[in-house]
Design goal:
Layout: E1 2-4, H1 12-29, E2 34-39, H2 42-49, H3 59-69, E3 74-79, H4 86-95, E4 102-104, H5 110-113
Parallel strand pairs: 2-3
Antiparallel strand pairs: 1-4
Helix pairs in contact: 1-3, 2-3
GO molecular function: nucleic acid binding; RNA-DNA hybrid ribonuclease activity
Domain RNase H type-1: 10-95
InterPro entries: RNase_H-like_dom_plant, RNase_H-like_EbsB-rel, RNaseH-like_sf, RNaseH_domain, RNaseH_sf
Length: 123
């Protein structure tokens, strides 16, 4: 798992787009080839799965994310409701207290472990 603080975020959408790009980079760093990326921002998911260039402030970020994802053998971007994304939100809260720029978690933090059973894709 990866938890990272984003300094000086532009907008909620831009922050979500940056998180998606970091997730793809993380998958590449780990050498993964078949990956499902989940996010609860419908706007960002639509930008990542659509054919059109997003004109918003996050457009360049989502285009970069799609280009990186094409380096994977197989990938899909899925939209999940916030209820189905509880682990990501717990990690985001944890990242607020991160002092290290990139905090790679080798083990699931005890205060997040119980959320794994609840973290299901909800369409």
């Amino acid at each position: 798992m990866l938890s990272q603080k984003i300094r000086f975020p532009l907008s909620v959408e831009a922050t979500e787009a940056m998180a998606a790009r970091r997730a793809v980079r993380f998958a590449l760093e780990l050498g993964l080839t078949d990956v499902e990326f989940e996010g609860d921002s419908r706007i960002i998911n639509d930008a990542l799965t659509g054919e059109k260039y997003a004109q918003a402030d996050f457009g360049v970020i989502t285009e970069d994310t799609k280009a990186l994802a094409r380096l994977l053998h197989n990938y899909v971007f899925l939209h999940v409701k916030r209820l189905g994304n509880s682990v990501a939100h717990a990690l985001a809260r944890k990242a607020q207290n991160c002092t290290i720029p990139n905090d790679r978690l080798e083990h699931v933090p005890p205060n997040i472990e119980h959320l794994l059973s609840l973290d299901i894709s909800v369409e």
